[in-house]
Description:
single chain, alpha+beta, three-stranded antiparallel β-sheet, 1 helix, 23% helix, 23% strand, flat
Amino acid sequence: MRLERCPSAQGQTTASGIVPIRDSKATDGPALIIAASAWAPFIEAVKGTAPRG
């Protein structure tokens, strides 16, 4: 399976505590804005390091 579009966060958290996510192949396109407080647990869950409950 080939992915035509790739989401990219680039590890960037802004000073206001948001993480903009956008298509890495269309960097001038719109961004999905995620709160850093929600992004960190998501990444932990994807990596498998989140606490299970």
